[in-house]
Amino acid sequence: MKRGIDVSKWQGNIDWQKVKAAGIEFAILRASYGDGTSRFKNNGRDEKFEENYKGAKEAGIPVGAYHYCYARNIEEAKKEAEFFLSVIAGKQFEYPVILDLEDANQKNINKVTLTDMAIAFLDTVEKAGYYAMLYSNKYWLETRLDYDRLKRFDIWLAQWGKEPTWNGNFGIWQYTSDGSVDGIQGKVDMNIAYRDYPAIIKKAGLNGFDREELTSRADPERKVVYTVKKGDTLWEIAKKYNTTVEKLAKDNGIKNPNLIYPGQRLVIK
What we know:
By secondary structure, this protein is an alpha/beta fold. It has helices at about 15-20, 50-60, 75-90, 110-125, 140-145, 145-150, 195-205, 235-240, 245-250, and strands spanning about 1-5, 25-35, 65-70, 95-100, 130-135, 155-160, 170-180, 190-195, 210-215, 220-225, 265-269.
C-alpha cells in the first residue's frame, strides 16, 4: 500500500520537497475541468497543474492526473476527454489518468446515459495509450452508475471514514478530505493505493512510458515496443531511436508513413 494525496489549484502553492519528506508516496493532480472553452475559467485548465507536475516530479513523487467532468451527454463526454488528453500530452504519469464523475448538474441524468458517458470518456483516454480510471463516490457507484459495465476499469473510491464499505473492487481509496501534510497550507484529500501502479504502467508502456522488451535467446537483437502518443510523427520517433522512417515503416507494415495514430505500437529494432 502507498500513501498519497490529490491536489488542485485550491491547495495553492505547494512545497513538494516538504511533502516528500512527510512520507507522501504519490500525488494525483487535477489537470483540467470542462470542455476547454471560454465558459470555464482559464479555459478549463487547472491553474496549478503545470507547477504541481514540475514540483512533484522534481521531488521524486510519482504522479497521476484527473479531469473533473461537467458533461451531460456522450458527445460532451468525448469532447472533454479529448480536451483532457490535450492538457496532459507530452507528460509521463506513474499513476492512472482519471475521470472524476460526480457533479451536481448530472444528478438528473439516467443511469444508462451516465454510464455510457463514463465509458465514452474512459475509452477515449485508454485508446490514446493511457491507464484509465474512474473516480466516484460510493453512492454514485451503487445507485447512479451501472458498475457491472464499468468493471474493466479501475475505480478510485471516494468514501470518507475509517474503512471502506463499498463491495466493488477499487485500486485507490480516498478516505478523507480533512488531511494535513507538511508543505501544504490547509486541508488536503488523503488516499491509499492498493496496487503497484508505477510497475504496472511502466511494464505496459502506458502513460507516456515506452515499453521495452527483448527478443528470444535465439535472436539476441534488442527491440523496443513504442506506443504512439498524440502529436507524434514517424520522423520524430525515428530520430529519437536513431533509425529511419523507411525502416520503421518496413518493420511495422506501414504503407503511408504520414498515417500513425495514438495507441499504435511500433516495433523498433
